[in-house]
Design goal:
Elements lengths: L3 E8 L3 H12 L5 E4 L15 E2 L6 H21 L6 E2 L2 E5 L2 H16 L4 E5 H7 L10 E5 L3 E2 L2 H14 L3 E3 L4 E6 L7 E5 L4 E9 L5 H5 L8 E11 L11 E4 L4 E6 L2 E6 L6 E2 L17 H14 L8 E12 L5 E4 L6 E5 L5 H18 L21 H11 L25 H6 L2 E6 L2 E7 L18 H13 L18
Parallel strand pairs: 1-2, 1-12, 2-9, 5-14, 12-20
Antiparallel strand pairs: 3-8, 4-8, 5-7, 6-7, 10-11, 11-12, 13-16, 13-17, 13-18, 14-15, 15-16, 19-20, 21-22
Helix pairs in contact: 1-5, 1-8, 2-5, 2-8
Length: 498
């Protein structure tokens, strides 16, 4: 075929790419093409658990996810194709006083955004949900808006909607190289495996964990890492509620949902198994890894403790599929700096299905309006630093990044892995003076100074911070005597000219 020109090309036919195509086409964008190297949804979307939890721990993430339930309803009405979405309601379970406080804080956020939320104690939970073992539970939060959907049905419905608005979708079209258009301020040239060449003004990379392979052609690297994500599906179980509410035992790291009389159990672990997008097994559609019962055993034990009937249930299916996570467990969204017309939407941290509608809407707004409606600073790819995107850094950070989905969201929380990237010339002198270091954009920066060994630890709390007296003392020195501040981690901007 001759060279072809498009206004916008999307690479990746999962839920994210299809949602972007739908939203762009729905707003009237012409010359829109989506390329999928295999079949639609065949990367990671097809094996997603499909949990639709619109309430997250931050306002920005909640805005992205809250858009999903209403969108799925409207999409079904428009296309006539089911997304499998049902509102089940969901429980968030706590086992500690600190988690109780976090649930109270998330509940306040949810209520401010018009969620229907109820906080109850373990005794009340046992009265309402006899299938849950409430031993060890201190409190529970009910979110009426929780639900679930069928990821494959969502992808098919999005594709039907996008093409009805005029978008073109091509399957089995692998991009083998990407280059910038020579002698132009923007524009990209794509070469396909069948020798076709496509030119476009805007290029959107939605390749999931394979996105870095595509971006490498442009010498761009993101903090994106593939891991093995596992869950199991039981055989039919009696005495389950209908529908089964989405249930997250946050302190045990597990979640469950119903599936036509069966139970789905999964979790987010520390130190997950790393996989690489270049592995031969991942070049095929619908790729899965071997069962790993040893890695999954802690989740099985926690699941049986919380849902005792699991002990007698047979296992129908064990899913172990690839999923991509980022260094800070936030997605990578938006335009790539110094690359006009290049956008990314990847690194969904196992929240791709619930995030897809909001991400599609936001990327469409970035392309057509110059900025999204919502404040997505925490998700904007512009936050990424070059030293965050090395293989060594990202792999080291995965030890805690996956677990962070259900970990405590402490104020002033510091990362524990991949530290020491940047140290100022006086780092060791500050350490000798009792500096307790935190991480700021890769820099090791003193949070406070203390000569007492018992004040050297980061003792997280929602209440008064144990380091406040030290900072108060430092403020006193600055006000009444003098102090020296190391500004090495701060940006310096040199402005000159008339």
């Amino acid at each position: 075929m001759p060279d072809q020109s498009r206004h916008t090309v999307i690479i990746g036919g999962g839920a994210i790419g299809l949602s972007i195509a739908y939203h762009l086409a729905a707003r009237g964008l012409q010359e829109l093409l989506l390329l999928e190297r295999h079949q639609l949804s065949s990367g990671t979307s097809w094996h997603a658990a499909g949990i639709i939890g619109p309430l997250r721990a931050s306002k920005a993430a909640t805005q992205l996810a809250t858009y999903a339930p209403g969108f799925f309803h409207d999409l079904e009405q428009f296309t006539g194709s089911s997304t499998g979405y049902i509102q089940t309601g969901g429980w968030w379970l706590s086992q500690t006083p600190a988690r109780d406080v976090e649930l109270q804080r998330i509940a306040d956020l949810g209520r401010s955004l018009n969620f229907n939320i109820d906080l109850i104690n373990a005794k009340q939970l046992a009265q309402q949900e006899s299938w849950i073992n409430c031993q060890g539970i201190s409190s529970a939060m009910w979110v009426q808006e929780d639900g679930q959907a069928n990821p494959v049905d969502i992808c098919q419905s999005l594709a039907k909607g996008a093409t009805s608005y005029g978008a073109e979708i091509r399957e089995n079209q692998q991009v083998v190289s990407i280059s910038r258009e020579p002698h132009k301020s923007n524009g990209y040239r794509l070469s396909l495996h069948n020798s076709d060449t496509i030119h476009c003004q805007n290029l959107v990379i939605c390749g999931g964990m394979w996105s870095n392979q595509l971006l490498a052609h442009l010498d761009i690297h993101l903090p994106l890492q593939g891991v093995e994500h596992m869950y199991l599906i039981t055989e039919d179980m009696a005495d389950l509620p209908n529908p089964v509410p989405i249930t997250r035992d946050l302190d045990s790291g597990i979640y469950c949902k119903g599936d036509a009389g069966k139970l789905v159990l999964g979790g987010f672990e520390a130190n997950p198994k790393i996989v690489h997008a270049q592995q031969p097994a991942l070049q095929s559609p619908y790729a899965l890894f071997d069962e790993d019962w040893q890695q999954f055993e802690p989740f099985i034990n926690a699941g049986i403790e919380r849902f005792p009937q699991l002990a007698q249930a047979g296992i129908k299916t064990f899913i172990n599929g690839p999923e991509s996570f980022t260094h800070d467990t936030q997605p990578l969204l938006g335009p790539i700096a110094n690359n006009p017309g290049l956008y990314v939407a990847c690194g969904m941290n196992s929240l791709g299905i619930v995030s897809a509608p909001g991400v599609g809407k936001s990327i469409a707004e970035w392309i057509l309006d110059g900025q999204p409606q919502w404040d997505l600073l925490a998700q904007d790819v512009s936050r990424v630093r070059i030293d965050h995107s090395t293989h060594g850094f990202v792999q080291a950070r995965m030890v805690e990044a996956v677990e962070n989905q259900f970990a405590m969201h402490w104020p002033y929380k510091q990362v524990a892995t991949a530290r020491g990237l940047k140290r100022t010339p006086v780092h060791e002198q500050m350490r000798a003076s009792g500096a307790v270091f935190g991480n700021l954009a890769g820099w090791e920066r003193p949070l406070w100074f203390s000569s007492e060994s018992n004040n050297q630890d980061l003792d997280y709390s929602f209440e008064q911070q144990h380091w406040w007296p030290q900072v108060q003392q430092e403020g006193h020195y600055l006000s009444h005597q003098c102090g020296l501040m190391d500004l090495s981690p701060f940006s310096k901007i040199h402005i000159k000219g008339p």
